[in-house]
TrEMBL record:
Protein known as: DUF1272 domain-containing protein
Superkingdom, taxonomy of origin: Bacteria
Organism: Sphingomonas palmae
Length: 75
């Protein structure tokens, strides 16, 4: 099950689990659309593709809530 990280790891912008606009690699590193574009859709950690993260909504989100641990890195 995806961790559904709550923020962009590059700029720290909020990325709600029930909305689109988040991009992830196979290791679940998570970035906003602007940062994914700036990174040429490549994860700076693993070099893998950054792909659209699916939204988690409704009962599934209630049963499996998004993480609250923020991962933004200081620049």
């Amino acid at each position: 099950m995806l961790e559904m990280r709550p923020d962009c790891e590059r700029c720290g912008v909020d990325l709600p689990a029930d909305e689109g606009g988040a991009f992830i690699c196979s290791l679940e590193n998570t970035f906003c659309a602007d940062c994914a574009d700036a990174l040429d859709e490549r994860c700076p950690d693993c070099g893998g593709e950054l792909l659209d993260r699916p939204a988690r909504v409704g009962k599934l989100l209630a049963k499996h809530p998004a993480s609250t641990t923020r991962h933004a890195r200081a620049h």
